[in-house]
Amino acid sequence: MSLLPQAGGWRRDGIAVGDEPLRETQDVMWLQVGDDYADIRLGEDKRWAFAGVTTVAGTRVTWAHVVETQGDNFEDTGEMVAIPGGFAERGSLHDGQPYLELWRDVPGPVTPARSAVAGHGTVRVVRLGDRALWVTPTGAVRLLLVDGGWTIDAVVDTQPEGVAAFMTSGAECPALFLDALQVSYAE
User: Fold this and answer.
1) pLDDT of residue 182
2) Is the link from the previous residue into 112 a cis peptide, with omega within 30 of 0?
3) Given strand 139-146, what is the order of strands in its sheet?
4) What is the pLDDT of residues 52-83, one digit of tens each?
5) Comparing C-alpha atoms, which of 184, 12, 5 is closest to residue 104?
6) Helix (H) or strand (E) holding 186
């Protein structure tokens, strides 16, 4: 059995870098479905998102950044342990400083859980229940399902191509919608 569930979502509840105390200055959400993940980080000084494929080997978790709104080419690997209501992650930043992150389960439904990939991997959508993250190299959105309709909760850089069409289509799921658009992204 893998450390991560088949489908799950987490919000970062704090990060400590080096000897600093645990604190949180960003709104960070990570959604995972199977091996596919998306992560969006909203802060006053930096807003960015990335998505790709997760590999788990025991307690070692690696998130391959297949697509990023602001590339840093950092190998995103940490040692994780389950804690009540989430995970604790330890690792090292690109400059070698150690970090500790606390991740708490996102409340709410975890189904339906779907992911989709288009544009030779550069367009990725992960949906978990009433949340979805849509990530491309030029921008990302966090979508929320409210009263039966999807709304844009946050935007990083520019709204990805296809999001506006999805919003007006009345489609049930952004991942299924993206699957239907793969021909246009492949051109």
Assistant:
1) 60
2) yes
3) 113-118, 123-128, 131-136, 139-146, 149-157
4) 999 999 999 999 999 999 877 677 899 999 99
5) 12
6) helix 174-186
Amino acid at 29: M
CA distance linking residue 180 with residue 162, whole number of Å:
11
Cα gap 90→102, rounded to integer Å: 9
Q: Name the DSSP letter for residue 148.
A: T
pLDDT at 185 over 70: no
154's CB contacts (< 8 A; 6+ apart) are: 27, 40, 42, 141, 142
Buried b (16+ CB within 10 A) or exposed e, 89-125: bebeeeeeeeebbbbbebeeebeebbbbbbbeebbbb
Query: By C-alpha distance, which of 165, 157, 173, 166 is closest to 49?
Result: 157
Specify whether the CB–CB gap between 94 and 105 falls below 8 A. Answer: no
Residue 138's pLDDT is 96
Q: What are the pLDDT digits (tens) for 112-140?
A: 999 999 988 899 999 999 999 999 999 99
Other Cβ atoms closer than 10 A to 185:
16
